[in-house]
Amino acid sequence: MLLVLSEEHKEHLSFLPQVDAAVVGEFGRIALEFLRRGASPKVYEGAARKLCVPVEMVQHGVEGLMFLMTESSKHMISEVDFLDSVLVLGFSEELNQMLLQLYLQHHSQIRSILSHLPSSVPAYHNLEWRLDVQLARRSARQQFIPMLTMRVHLTRSDGHSDFNSRILQTDPSTLLHLISTLEAALAAMKTGHARRILRNIK
Amino acid sequence: MELSESVQRGLQSLADQSVFDHGSFQVLVDVSFRSLLSSHGDPTVLGQPEFKQIDQILLKQSHTAAVTFILEAVKQNADQSTISSSLEELTFSAERTEIFYSAYQKHKKDLERLLASIGRGLPHITDASWRLEYHMKNGQVDKVNDPFYLISLNTENEGSSEDINFTCTVEQLQDLVGKLKDAAKTMEKASQM
């Protein structure tokens, strides 16, 4: 599939052929850095001063690159489709190849960044457990209650490396019930129904 | 068992045949266990016809004393000899001690559970539900095509319930189940010691 670039997007990118290849390379690096860690406008000011161009021009150039990279990574377009899509920009062959390399080298990382965006539910990261026996409490002495204490580490919904951990307990019979319930979940992956669907939706 | 003076006094009047006859003694013992287990402090439990002849202040004192004695005994996990000697010291007849003890034995498990539920604890997992989904695409990324699970752990804490929801991949769920199985194995070994 081909990307359809808007007139505005084309205009933003039209800044790229006006500068050196090294500068385009630098813009590419900045664009990826921003995708990874978020944009910082100060970088635009510094670059604009060096190149003696308005800040907006640099900003549009970098953002245009970011958008080009995220759109092509989103649809995971092929090499040929990427080159055909950027053809309308009328760039030199060298510049097109540079953009292609940028795309090919980073598309999997960009996809993984993008895939973190929509998840609003925390994701499982790790589980630690400990076997405890409750012996007494203020309201009851001489108890003997076995308990499994667990800490479930979840990655926060906004992605990245922030962890959110919950401490939970359960008793032996519920533990066995949990195991059999979750084993049933794993078994559901192996059924003919699930395999058929996984095979056919590609 | 250490008992305060007012509890001792209340139990002494409960032991007294001239205050509580055989019938009303049995009903009071019964009512005292019921106040703890099913009627949760309902004041009307003392409105039984058997109590009509009894001085209302003495009745309330004896009821309070019996309830306190029961709670203290369960809390200390008192055995038959401790209970019998305590009651006999408070002038209980052998027959009344026996009536009290058999009621105590009958309700002890439920009372233990009641006392064990008092106080702070960690959220307790009671059940889990799951859903298997196939992530095809979203607003940001096309052709994701990844199966994943939505797991919901149902927990309870001090009467309120909460669901802990998270997603995990097939490998992560295998990891989770593997760890829970390790824990179950350890638990089984520990129970055989």
Describe this structure in words.
The complex is a heterodimer of chains A (202) and B (193). With 202 residues, chain A is of the alpha+beta class. Chain A folds into two domains: 7-116, no CATH class; 123-200, no CATH class. Chain A has helices at residues 7-13, 21-37, 41-51, 55-75, 79-87, 93-116, 172-189, 192-200; strands at residues 123-134, 145-155, 163-170. In chain A, strands 1-2-3 form a three-stranded antiparallel sheet. In chain A, helix 3 (41-51) packs across helix 4, helix 4 crosses helix 6 (93-116) and helix 5 (79-87) packs across helix 6. Chain B has 193 residues and is α+β, with helices and mostly antiparallel strands. Chain B has two domains: 5-116, no CATH class; 124-191. Chain B contains six helices and three strands; from the N terminus they run αααααβββα. Chain B has helices at 5-15, 22-37, 56-76, 80-89, 94-116, 170-191, and strands at residues 124-135, 146-157, 160-168. The longest helix of chain B has 23 residues, at 94-116. The two termini of chain B are 32 Å apart. The interface between A and B is large, with 60 and 58 residues.
Describe the protein's topology.
The complex is a heterodimer of chains A (202) and B (193).
Chain A: H1 7-13, H2 21-37, H3 41-51, H4 55-75, H5 79-87, H6 93-116, E1 123-134, E2 145-155, E3 163-170, H7 172-189, H8 192-200
Helix pairs in contact in A: 1-4, 2-4, 2-6, 3-4, 4-6, 5-6
Chain B: H1 5-15, H2 22-37, H3 56-76, H4 80-89, H5 94-116, E1 124-135, E2 146-157, E3 160-168, H6 170-191
Helix pairs in contact in B: 1-3, 2-3, 2-5, 3-5, 4-5
